[in-house]
Specification:
single chain, 8-stranded mixed beta sheet, FAD/NAD(P)-binding domain, D-Amino Acid Oxidase, Chain A, domain 2, alpha+beta, Glutaredoxin, 27% helix
Length: 522
């Protein structure tokens, strides 16, 4: 049995595994990603990508590629609405236009792009940055000790087994996560919502889409509840079905999958389109379970859960892939700092402390959108109050030892605040301030810590790994909640780690950095 060593092994080579590999490579840490499937995604899942995800892609040089790929398939201004059928009347508008109201909050925009289009882009970039990606490889055993993890891998083509010795493992192996099961980590939440299907099809629906702001189209009629996505030609798309029948309160209404025949799939597709005049071709049907659950822990020793292995949501709101990318963003820089010897081991405890409360919030908000948009007749008694999309994307609040709260501040314990009110609060995403030439303060983050201050702030020696930036842009101090003499220390993931409202000394920066990185003070 052969054996190799790698700093980080990633179990899973889909969107979150590839994002983790890419971001580790961005920090100069090589990884090995193993995936049991033969390649990247073959179906157009996870198509709504939020501002924070596009900011991450911008950070690694992929924003232009992804936006160009999006335009090949979808209109950039699509919205989210509900209809009786494509041929029927419109009955609700949930989002008028995908990027309505986001101007000024970010240097980028939201996009619709299919997962089968995005994953090859992520894979290519991950490999460019030093990752190794192998397909048709399955992790079949895992043993941890004080210095690392030994994982047994099986080649699914040859059945040969080998072992990998890694300092750390990221389990990004999906909602059924065998790795999570091996670790004995349970899931909790709303449980199974429905046994759903996705029908992939061809049908010339262009004339039925005329005059509609084409994006995500929910379908509510006596035959089914779900949503449709069609490409910009109106000729190819998919239909997600969550319930069948007029009475969605019946237990059998949520069982769409069991016993489904080809004829029944065509019948449901026809009901969603709403006319017999359009020839249809069913290309494939995927069977899956809609759930809304979160792991009871996102770390077990040297193994970290990310993506669907850590939290599973219904597709309503587009939170699945986006939330997983934020897991990868949070974890990659911390693993890199520990592996490089820049941080103490306990920095890694902050991954669960920061991400799991927000994962639970996201699970709740995805369920709220499911309840509102798919089965409103069941009521909202078990759903949390709706939090607006912009706040969910840019206004989440983290708390851990890697965030130093403002001295004397009162913490209300809330997990979110609207971006207009965050104003550079420690634990929130550092605000976008335009710097000219299509550049943003967000472009200063990514690899090292960044110290941001205005020209009037007194200069101070900054320790490694901190890069000093003088920001002369109008509105910078106000947006970051500091005075003209103050400064902000931003972590590599773009989260504010510490700030000084007024004048500061070099020792304050060094002490803040040492606290965030869980290392002894100099």
């Amino acid at each position: 049995m052969t054996r190799e060593e790698i700093p980080v092994l990633i179990v899973g080579g889909s969107m979150i595994g590839l994002s983790s590999a890419m971001l580790l490579g961005h920090h100069g840490v090589p990884s090995l990603s193993v995936e049991r499937h033969a390649g990247t995604a073959i179906h157009p899942r996870a198509g709504h990508f939020q501002l924070r995800t596009l900011e991450v892609l911008r950070q690694v040089g992929l924003e232009d590629d992804v936006r160009a790929a999006s335009l090949l398939t979808y209109h950039p201004t699509g919205g989210i609405n509900a209809v009786e059928s494509l041929a029927g009347r419109e009955i609700a508008t949930y989002v008028k236009e995908l990027n309505e109201g986001v101007e000024g909050f970010s240097p980028t925009v939201r996009v619709f792009v299919n997962q089968d289009v995005l994953e090859p882009i992520l894979r290519r970039r991950a490999i460019e940055l030093g990752a190794t990606v192998r397909n048709r490889i399955e992790a079949v055993d895992l043993k941890q000790d004080d210095s690392g993890v030994t994982v047994t891998l099986r080649d699914l083509a040859s059945a040969d087994e080998s072992t990998v010795r890694a300092r750390y493992v990221i389990a990004a192996d999906g909602n059924r996560s065998p790795m999570r099961a091996r670790l004995g980590i349970a899931m909790e939440g709303y449980g199974e919502l429905s046994r759903s299907i996705t029908i992939y099809f061809k049908a010339d629906c262009a004339r039925l889409l005329a005059g509609r702001n084409q994006g995500v189209i929910y379908v509510h009629n006596p035959a089914l509840r779900g949503f449709m996505r069609l490409d910009r030609t109106g000729g190819t798309g998919f239909l997600v079905i969550n319930t069948v029948g007029e009475d969605v309160t019946r237990p059998e209404a949520i069982n769409v999958s069991d016993g489904l025949t080809d004829e029944r799939a065509r019948e449901l597709l026809r009901a969603a389109i709403g006319t017999d005049d359009v020839p249809i071709e069913v290309l494939d049907v995927a069977h899956w379970r809609a759930e809304s659950n979160v792991a009871t822990a996102m770390r077990a020793g040297r193994v970290f859960l990310a993506g669907d292995a850590a939290h599973v949501v219904p597709p309503n709101g587009g939170y699945g892939g986006n939330t997983g990318v934020q897991d990868a963003l949070n974890l990659a820089w911390k693993l890199a700092a520990v592996i490089k010897g820049e941080a103490g081991e306990t920095l890694l405890d902050t991954y669960d402390a920061e991400r799991r409360p927000l994962a639970r919030l996201t699970v709740e908000q995805a369920y709220t959108r499911y309840a509102m948009r798919v089965v409103p007749e069941r009521g909202m008694d078990d759903a949390e109050p709706f939090v607006d999309d912009l706040t969910m994307e840019l206004g989440l609040v983290m708390r851990s030892s890697a965030v130093i709260a403002d001295a004397g501040s009162e913490d209300d314990g809330g997990l979110h605040v609207h971006p207009t009110l965050a104003r550079g609060r420690p634990g929130t995403r550092a605000p976008h301030v335009a710097l000219g030439d299509d550049r943003s303060t967000l472009d200063l983050f990514g690899r090292d810590f960044a110290l941001l201050h205005g020209p009037r702030a007194a200069g101070a020696d900054v320790p490694a790994p901190v890069t000093d930036h003088v920001i002369a842009a109008e509105g910078f101090p106000e947006d970051y909640g500091i005075s003209a003499e103050g400064a902000t220390l931003v972590r590599p993931d773009g989260v504010v780690g510490w700030r000084s409202h007024g004048a500061y000394a070099g020792d304050e920066i060094r002490n803040a950095l040492s606290a965030i990185l869980a290392r002894e003070r100099a």
